[in-house]
Amino acid sequence: MKIKRTIKLPQDRFFTQTIATVIETGRYAFLKNWVQHAGVSTYRHSLWVTALTYRLARKLKLKVDYCSLIRGSLLHDYYLYDWHDKHKGLRGHGFKHPAISYKRASEDYMLNEIEKDMIVKHMFPLTPFPPKYKESFCLSLCDKIVSLLEIFRLVKDE
């Protein structure tokens, strides 16, 4: 098996313009300061998850709100702290960060119901309620795939 060193972002105009509306505003650039898994920044992780979620939905020809799919995916880990820092006192990051991410994202962005559901439920089954929308299911699956690729060092930050 050939190991990919990075996940390429889609280059179509819709994708690039939609991600720009998020990553160029709010506190999104701060995600570069924190590691998600195995040396990959939260910024890069979120972009990779978004790229995979978008590609999966397109490949399956899903009838979804692609703008919400991209925005919700980009903001799914918008918790804005170093979850590896044991001195901060935050325990249960896997269970708590979806709600924190939603709170922080809603401070910086106008979110619709699909985007809220995506952010709050992306850790299902660690979160108590399953995703309500196809966009949320896609995100939940792709987040787990990308996380595994990062943990097993099959991809790395550029």
What does this structure look like?
- The model has no long low-confidence stretch (mean pLDDT 86).
- Helix 3 runs parallel beside helix 5.
- Strands 1-2 form a two-stranded antiparallel sheet.
- It is built from six helices and two strands, in the order αββααααα.
- The chain is mainly alpha-helical and 158 residues long.
- It has a single domain, classed as Orthogonal Bundle (Hypothetical protein af1432).
- The radius of gyration is 15 Å and the shape is globular.
Oligomer: single chain
The CATH topology is Hypothetical protein af1432
The portion of residues forming beta strands comes to under 5%
Largest sheet: 2 strands, antiparallel
The stretches of 5 or more residues where confidence is low (pLDDT under 50) are none
Radius of gyration in whole Å, from Cα? 15 Å
Average pLDDT works out at 86
Tell me the strand order in the biggest sheet. 1-2
- The termini sit apart by 21 Å
Helicity range = 40-55%
Q: Which CATH top level class fits?
A: Mainly Alpha
Q: What is the helix tally? A: 6
Give the H and E element order.
Answer: HEEHHHHH
Shape: globular
Structural class: mainly alpha
* Secondary structure tally: strands: 2
User: What number of domains?
Assistant: 1
